[in-house]
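FORM 7B: Structural annotation worksheet

SECTION A. Query
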Amino acid sequence: MKLNMAVVGLAHPFEVGFDEAETLLNQTADTLEKVGISCENVGVVMHDLDTVKKAVSVLKTKDVELLMICIGTWSEDHHLLDLLSYIDKPVILRAYPARETGSLCCAHQIGAVFRDIGKTYEFLYGEAESIECAKEAKKIAVAYALKTAMRHTRVGAIGGRVKGMTEIAYDEFAIKQKLGARVVNLDEKEMCSKVEAMTDSEAEKILEEKKDILAPCKVTATKEDMLESIKYYSALKALAEEYDLEALSVKCYTTYMGKVCLGYSLLAEEGIVGSCEGDVTNALTMKLLYELSGKPVNNTDLLYLDEKENSILFAHCGSSGFSIAEGDIELCPVRLAETGVCTRFLVKPGKVTAVNVCGHGDTFRLSAMVGDAIPCGMEFPGNPVKIQFKKSVFDINKEIMENGIGHHWMVAYGDYMEELKYFCKINSILMYEI
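SECTION B. Predicted structure
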């Protein structure tokens, strides 16, 4: 995701520090660039209508997600209101430590005005060259960039959801309202017809094209199942291209169990996420985490608590991207059905964020927890990940049950708790930090 932010100054010519307001603006912009934000320095310190109009004219030529208002001194707040009447973007109010400038009290004044007019905002306080402030601004910028990315996302729901799993029934209105994404409902016949139309020789050709990623794998699945699975991969990819989809969810259990898993693993390396059992909401959760991490996301169930090492085992059948594997990869039949092709491997250790999204209407909720993926064996046949937490795993389990959080957890490498908090705040999503 590209993080685009514009910085604009605000100050009053009569106040102490006005002559330094432009320097503060420039220093702030330079510091934001250092942490990876693409910062558009408008180069204007607003203090009258002419300077407001000058800032507006510059901003109209820039493609930015949000504005940072660098408050050099106390200022008349209507200058900012005038700017927002032309450029209505999300705002970070940025105040600076100083005794005589009135920067901080001006931020408080503007905050009160924004509250009364219903304008949401973020607030940062610190020196212009503070890396910590810049890093916090980056987390905010990520949340807004994520909001834009999700607004442009289309998820393909193929065949609806698994019967008997009412928890994952998806609310298209809540998904659109809270996440911004659109659900594209597809009949499973669209997938199957593409599978049936492909010949074995065409499937062989695709297998050959994928030999770089598949050749190192140990194959215990039958040749027949390999060919069928690669046909499903081709069908899913074709549907993604046809409907401009970045996320997929197939009602796999039990009819297509094992048939789409290899396809999901291959597509994960191509930037298309896929969730199991027709859980559309968690396909979008995978998309959220893919945008944050830039890596394949592990689709799991929460399975087992280990009190001794304070860890939780998460796993599913085996459809995660190859690049998160630690060690050997086996292409094998799916558990229970003993058919199809799963991508079975142990995953890399490291800091991870596990997220569940479920609910409907006002109960639509995102739950997240951060821990460390630690080495484990093939304790569940699939892509098991054992996560060790600082909090008691029994307390975590209690919170999950008390808040009705659900059983599907999407696991991504990295700690994204703060970015998710901002994302939930700006999208009015109920969040549980576990």
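SECTION C. Observations
The chain has two domains: 4-150, 152-433. The domain at 152-433 is CATH 3.20.14 (L-fucose Isomerase; Chain A, domain 3).

SECTION D. Sign-off
Analyst initials: ____
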